[in-house]
Write a structure and sequence with these properties.
Elements lengths: L15 H4 L4 H7 L5 H6 L2 E4 L9 H5 L5 E2 L8 E2 L9 H5 L5 E8 L2 E8 L10 E5 L5 E11 L6 E8 L8 E6 L4
Antiparallel strand pairs: 1-4, 2-3, 4-5, 5-8, 6-7, 6-9, 7-8
Bound molecules: iron/sulfur cluster (2 copies).
């Protein structure tokens, strides 16, 4: 089963400036998310950038030209058919506003997140899966660590599939031996 897209109906109308963080309901209202069919096919970008902001490293980073901004201040728009889920834009975004969700892996989803804290986690580390407000919503395991020469470190974390559109960070509590 793909992650539910309707969680957070109660906070659908909460604006980020009132709550201090984005909600899935607000993102659904403000952006065109990929279809469930596209999400089930493999990794795909989720851009949670809803402000008009003079910034475009995401556009420049995408070799497939999947990200478009109509003007420098317009929010980015994605052509999901062109996105391969490579995560280059995740590392390039200074706003830490881009994620990759891969729901094509059975019971678990792989969510790529930008991660700026130290120490950099290692593969096999485990911890709490956190939502956009920093609340624990489940458990997560680091499956992949990408240290980019330029840009933000990107972690691939495994979470239960139904949490794929909720989990946006990890709080490490168990370090692996590796
Ligand atoms: S994940 Fe890769 S292909 Fe998809 S939008 Fe980002 S840079 Fe482009
Ligand atoms: S680089 Fe990040 S913050 Fe800048 S427009 Fe793109 S998604 Fe938004």
């Amino acid at each position: 089963m793909l992650p539910r897209m309707g969680k957070g109906e109660a906070d659908m109308n909460r604006k980020p400036r009132q709550s201090g963080c984005l909600s899935l309901g607000f993102i659904k209202k403000e952006t065109a998310l990929p279809s469930e069919e596209r999400m089930g096919k493999g990794p795909v970008v989720i851009i949670e950038c809803v402000e008009d902001i003079p910034c475009d490293p995401c556009v420049e980073s995408c070799r497939n030209k999947a990200i478009i901004k109509e003007s420098l201040t317009a929010p980015p728009v994605v052509d999901y058919d062109k996105c391969t889920g490579c995560a280059l834009c995740v590392a390039a975004c200074p706003g830490l506003a881009i994620f990759i969700v891969d729901c094509s892996r059975g019971e678990k989803a792989l969510v790529y997140i930008p991660y700026e804290m130290l120490p950099v986690p290692r593969e096999g580390d485990r911890g709490d899966a956190l939502d956009r407000s920093g609340k624990r919503v489940g458990s997560a395991e680091v499956a992949e660590v990408r240290k980019e020469k330029r840009g933000t470190t990107v972690l691939g974390i495994l979470v239960n599939k139904h949490l794929a559109m909720d989990v946006r960070s990890i709080r490490i509590s168990e370090r692996s031996d590796g």
